Amino acid sequence: MGEFELIDRHFKPKPAAARLHQATAAPDSIATPVVLGIGDDCALLQPAPGMQLAISTDMLVEGRHFLPDVAPARLGHKALAVNLSDLAACGAEPLACTLALALPPERARDDAWLAALAGGLWALADAQRCPLVGGDTTAGPLNLCLTVFGQVPAGQALRRDGARVGDDVWVSGTLGHARLALGALRGEWTLPPQLLAAARTRLECPTPRIALGLALRGIAHSAADVSDGLAGDLGHILRASAVGACLDAQETMKTIAAGAFSASAEGLFDRQTLLRLALTGGDDYELVFTAPPDARSAVQAAGQASATPLARIGRIEAEPGLRLLGADGRIEPLAARAFDHFAP
Amino acid sequence: MGEFELIDRHFKPKPAAARLHQATAAPDSIATPVVLGIGDDCALLQPAPGMQLAISTDMLVEGRHFLPDVAPARLGHKALAVNLSDLAACGAEPLACTLALALPPERARDDAWLAALAGGLWALADAQRCPLVGGDTTAGPLNLCLTVFGQVPAGQALRRDGARVGDDVWVSGTLGHARLALGALRGEWTLPPQLLAAARTRLECPTPRIALGLALRGIAHSAADVSDGLAGDLGHILRASAVGACLDAQETMKTIAAGAFSASAEGLFDRQTLLRLALTGGDDYELVFTAPPDARSAVQAAGQASATPLARIGRIEAEPGLRLLGADGRIEPLAARAFDHFAP
User: Fold this and answer.
1) Count of domains forming chain A
2) What pLDDT is stored for residue A276 in this prediction?
3) How confident is the model at residue B30 (pLDDT cuts 50, 70, 90)?
4) Nearest to A40 among B1, B147, B160 (CB)
5) CA atoms of A268 and B182, how far apart (whole Å)
6) A202 & A319 share domain
7) Of the candidates B291, B287, B289, which has an alpha carbon nearest to the alpha carbon of residue B308?
8) pTM for this structure?
9) A57 → chain B, closest CA residue
10) Is the distance from CB of A178 to CB of A278 less than 8 angstroms?
11) Is B56 in CB contact (< 8 Å) with chain A?
12) What is the CATH number of the domain that holds A321?
């Protein structure tokens, strides 16, 4: 199978997707921004009037971002999900995505693997109305580069530089489970099969918090997605906003315990280790954001409207840096560093 | 040097670029679509009202799209140029680009190499007003994935599917020299040093035909860029438009000879080989386009306005497929196939 047949067979929209995303006026037509999809030199999008375009790109490399034996449908899902998570962090509504794909010869020949990869990507693309509109395929070491495009009303994007002293620090969902699964897959520890399966789903099939990001427009002062670990990603907000923060270890622990399967992990690890997993684990694709205390009920309403669990875990302070308030009332400094791909 | 320092040092806009591209209102401010650049979860762009967004992405893999010893400044230039070439083929005006970059450890440590790579990219980005607004860096086998964003008035994009029977077929600049250089670098043949240097510049530093693409809006019926060889890329137009074409070998030869350094190649290769280089060589990043005969003077004016040499090399016909009219009056079929990354 050649390059162009490969694209035609696997990556062009399937009828269901085409129905939703084609720009032709069908009787039940849904307004779509896609003017021209796969097959020309460029894709053409028509954002709604007055909208700004939000753009993010992420590259996934075999052996670094995913294990060689990952289920291809999950890989397709994750490649799009980690990009959608960036749109969520900006409060942007997804419009479309492109995929550049380098494939070793054995993958290019593996029709079932490619079909599953494309199927996983398209399932999430359909669910989030973010159709694949273009891309590139080439031979090379396995590498997926997704770029996503979203729209947000001018001036309403959630940014990293808007946190203010006195803001609450909030985080969505649960943290640390992706790292829990990665450690088990790497042989750092063992997990009971049920916990491993649940944690592995969090690692391989993260849920981008698009609905929450949209609901937080006009409420949150700042936001980022948790891709490199809570401490690091909150650190980006602190540096961009020239502020500091103190997190409550107790509240952060409750966030970890919010997942139904987390109670079982509590018996396996000490609290210190669990806290470290949550603070620095990464690959969570939750949102960390700040909002003023008088917006607490609005934040809770945004969480309910988007069916997303939220926890208030700390406070923005004038003093730079990140601190942790322990159960014993002691405050300890925390390194506000993200995962670094080139760290020694 | 860590990932974030690497981005800060090399890939954030330098003062000159920042002056042009920042969204702050400077006294001599030029309207810029970049609302938010590198450093947040997403970049934010504001296309002009009524504009459609043109998007293209290309992935460059070491050993396949470039040789390991290529000058890094040229690699940075080319990674952006091949994407800008897609915007040119659509008649779109560049707005911004993103870069996802996988680096092996020895490259990540090589400050001079990175500075040259970023310098080459930024030089073209500044010249074409297409600033780098975001991206991703990771460890991995060397891979550059550029995505470009341009804007074009709604309905005015040049597309592959608009060629009509009777249209002239035009091509810009010169063809075949990139392949000439590649063959010399691969040891397929030898070239005199001066010809090699000139041809190698065409291979490593292609000129995206942005100004020509803009000038052809409203004149050309269809267009594509010549990245995989003239026969293949014209083939894309023919299939998308459900037409065929006959090229004049004499005129195509003149196109090859248009470059100042091509006369010297004529003595080294027979005409048949030169013709094959021009028709199937690839990596030219010229535009192939069609326009009605009554637009010939408008096409010539567009070429002059954009300082781009143009040649009229054939005609669109109703009969599908691609044919070549020889000097002896014989018509031969030509395979309208593009370079295929997964061909055996």
Assistant:
1) 2
2) 82
3) very low
4) B160
5) 59
6) yes
7) B287
8) 0.88
9) B135
10) no
11) yes
12) 3.90.650.10
